[in-house]
Amino acid sequence: MKPLTHIRSRTVVLSHENIDTDRIIPARYLTTTQREGLGKALFHDWRYRADGSLDPEFALNQAQARGCEILVAGRNFGCGSSREHAPWALTDFGFRAVLSSQIADIFRGNALKNGLLAVALDAREHRWLLEHPGVELAIDVAAGFIELPDGGRIGFDLEPFARHCLLSGVDQLGFLLQHESRISAFESRRAA
Fold first, then answer.
1. Which residues, given as ranges, of the chain have pLDDT below 70?
2. What is the three-class DSSP state of 72?
3. Where does residue 135 rank: exposed (0-12), middle (13-18), buried (19+ CB within 10 A)?
4. Which of 20, 53, 76, 83 is surrounded by the fewest CB atoms within 10 Å?
5. Are 41 and 25 in contact (CB under 8 A)?
């Protein structure tokens, strides 16, 4: 994973509520443990027509969505079954952050563990972002704020270990491996 310290990007908006993990990536694409390539299946049943062509009406297929790294989603994003493939698909597509007024706990945990910032905003801030698609935001992960175009800031909380992992570009296993020599030394002392 790459360290996630700052994000400066326009937003793309999917205002639907209750977007579940099967909508984010349909179950038929869960046959791999590889993260690469899952972006092609992101929101598959919305992004593609029955003939396999892209649906030009879908927000992610429109020209103004290209290069956007921040997804603003409707309330209760990531509900449904637990699957790490959902944040993998979002990051493989190019998203680095998801903002909503409510994010399912399991999805949020999976996202943070896999390098995707998932932030729940209050209803007023969320509504403003939904009403202003394409607005450019700056997110400071270390300081815990989102800067709006007018310079206003929206603060957000992030559990310290999740913040450390995002800023360092490591997952839980990577964090443990960083301390491998200390763990080995402890095990040697315990064995003696």
1. 173-177, 179
2. strand
3. middle
4. 53
5. yes
In a domain, 1, yes or no: no
Give me the pLDDT at residue 29, please. 92
- Which domain CATH number covers 28? 3.20.19.10
Place of tokens 């935001």: 137
pLDDT score for 52 = 95
The pLDDT of residue 175 is 63
76: left (phi over 0), alpha (psi -120 to 50) or beta: left
Domain that holds residue 82: 6-191
What is the spatial distance between Cα 102 and Cα 133, in angstroms, rounded to a whole number? 18
Residue 82 pLDDT = 87
Residue 172 lies inside a defined structural domain of this protein: yes
Domain count along the chain: 1
Q: Is 140 helix (H, G, I), strand (E, B) or coil?
A: strand
Confidence (pLDDT) at 4: 96
| Dist CA 21 CA 137 (whole Å) | 25
